[in-house]
Amino acid sequence: MSNAIGWTVTAISSVILLTLIVLKEIFRHQNKHALLCDIFAWIIVLIPPIYMTIIGMKWTWSESYLAGRSATVAITYSPFHILAILVTAGGAIYYGYRAHHLDRKDDRHYLWGRLNKNDYTIFKLGVSLLLIEIFKQIFFLELFTGYHWYGFPYQFCSVPLYVFLFGPFVKNKKIQRSLYSFTGIFTLVAGISVMIVGGDVFTSQISICVHTMMWHGLMVVAGVYTATYLGMGTKIKDYLSALIVLFCFMLGAQVLNIFFHLIDPNKTGPGNIDLFFISPYQGSRHMPILGDIRFWLQERINLPLISGFIYTLVYMFAFSLGGIIVFGIQFLFKLSARKIREHQKSKQSNEIVLNSEEIENNPKV
User: Fold this and answer.
1) 120, 119, 131: which is closest to 45 by C-alpha?
2) What's the pTM?
3) Is the pLDDT reported for residue 293 higher than 70?
4) Half-sphere exposure of 116 toward its Cβ, with a 13 Å CA cutoff?
5) What is the pLDDT at residue 351?
6) Average pLDDT over residues 76-92
7) Which residues pair with 60 in a beta bridge?
8) Mean pLDDT in residue range 277-287
9) What is the three-state SS of 87-116?
10) What is the domain extent for residue 174?
11) Does residue 298 fall inside a structural domain?
């Protein structure tokens, strides 16, 4: 696909997307045309996968843009990457504002009364992830013509797909709160990390670069939105329950890693997977610092299950630390917001007292 066609499709898709977003938000703020607003929202969900399907694998970064470098190096911190970071930051700020000032006051229920506003928003984000992942699995990973098992959708950054799709329908509120805590803490950690680092997530195919930036950008937006909506940052049990969810996902990943290795020890198919990048039988360095630790352990401990177990603990500790940092930031935001509210209440009380004194001292008032 030529750049002229690619940029034309991009421009048309962007204009349609932005127009629908603006119209939807105008109707939302005016509290008018709820049904039309909802229709716009679902069309917005459909536009990215349609756009990716149109450009498919045919549109690639030009040699002049890559300047003789690999896409991994050239696209990282390129104008495309920087723009994606800025769009993500803007979306996170807006969704955080919306969650705090608008959606928390929305007492309506959606999908025939099953979901509240937070559930419904997260579910729509899940559908969006599902549609763009279907595109990736079919066209990039060649699902029907010789599947590339390394792309099996159960990585750290893949599990939000399942949380977003099924979490809103969980009836047990404690379990649901744990899944949302995972979203507000660890999904946020993973999304921010990839958005900032870039690197291996970029390829020569533009559609896949759009996919990865949209995917991880939505992870950041969902994390900020959920944390704000639920008022996270005051209860340590939110962090602990999120940690338990992370442990369960990691346990599932390691069980699958071992199972696929046992059925395909020669790594010609499913034995090639490295879920969560913690497989005892793989040695990739996709993750900064952690990848080097993994390689160091494998060099010194020639027992895959032992080195894999130790590395899994290191991996868990590293992300636990990242999670507690995010939780601490949320705590500081909550503390600052509470102090601001207390200051405003104190100021209003003082004004009332002053006005009363003025009335007492001035009988003519």
Assistant:
1) 131
2) 0.91
3) yes
4) 15
5) 63
6) 95
7) 205
8) 87
9) HHHHHHHHHHHHHHHCHHHCCCCECCCCEC
10) 56-255
11) no
- Tell me what pLDDT residue 357 has: 61
| Placement of tokens 């997530």 in the chain | 201
pLDDT at 349 over 70: no
Residues 6+ apart with CB under 8 A from 262: none
Residue 164 and residue 184 in contact, taking contact as beta carbons nearer than 8 Å: no
140 in a domain, yes or no? yes
Q: Over 60: is that where the pLDDT of 322 sits?
A: yes
Whether 341 maps to a domain, the answer reads no
Instruction: Please provide the average confidence, as pLDDT, over all residues in the chain.
Output: 90
Shortest CA distance to 153 belongs to which of 276, 303, 241? 276
- Find out whether 124 and 139 touch, Cβ atoms under 8 Å: no
pLDDT of residue 2: 85
Q: Which two three-digit tokens encode residue 288?
A: 């900064």
SS3 109: coil
Distance CA 95, CA 226 (A): 9
Name the pLDDT band for 347 (thresholds 50, 70, 90).
low
**Does residue 161 fall inside a structural domain?**
yes
Query: Backbone phi, then psi, for 155, in 5-degree steps?
Result: -100, 175
Give the integer Cα–Cα distance in Å for 240 and 1: 49
C-beta separation of 172 from 144 below 8 A: no
| Whole-number Å distance between alpha carbons of 226 and 231 | 8
With CA atoms as reference, report the closest residue to 122 among 41, 241, 243.
41
> What tokens were used for 38?
């909802």
How many domains are there within the chain? 1
